[in-house]
Amino acid sequence: MSKPDPNEGAPHAPEPTQVDAEHGAIPETGFLGRAIDAFGIVFAIGIIASALILLNEVVLRYGFDSPTIWAHETTIFLCAMAFVYGGLYCVVRNSHIRVVLIYDLVTGRAKRILDAVISLVCLFAAGFFAWAAFGMVTKAVIRPGGGIHFETSGSAWDPIFPALLKIFLFVVLCLMVVQFLIMAVRYLRGTPSKGAAK
């Protein structure tokens, strides 16, 4: 005589739901969004590189009493670049912070219109910050007399990281403007890019 199954009559655990294999840019961002999403790996590698540089610095400083003059500023630069790019990366993945008090109450076309309005507001905000960043770039790159001279950190190593970071911030903000424009148009048309989930 076989033993009774202890699980007999118990409710079965639900089947695991399939996870969407595509966790990248949302369809409304188009080709630019997919490119921005793919390029994010470069900055992820930069963060790993900064951790390795710090580890190297600790070993050199405390193990061999021979610290470098470049590790601290290089680490700050790599992390700053990643944080700046992170804003653009969040835009294309639709993972930025938003207040959803009204947003979660609407569905369908109303939600798409709200998405378009949000994108347009963000477009103007990014445009304003890009304009402000352009002023920083001109001061960091162009001398008052008109010559080209990249702003440096003023340290013993004195790299041009401050100027490069300001230029990068300006470029990222300009890309944000273009990306928000693409998203607003696609939301209003209601036509996500090819291959989007319906």
From TrEMBL:
Membrane spanning residue stretches: 35-55, 75-92, 113-134, 167-188
Keywords from the UniProt entry: Cell inner membrane, Cell membrane, Membrane, Transmembrane, Transmembrane helix, Transport
Record's bilayer topology term: Multi-pass membrane protein
Pfam family, one: DctQ
Subcellular location field: Cell inner membrane
Region of interest (Disordered), residue spans: 1-20
Family (UniProt): Belongs to the TRAP transporter small permease family.
The protein, known as: TRAP transporter small permease protein
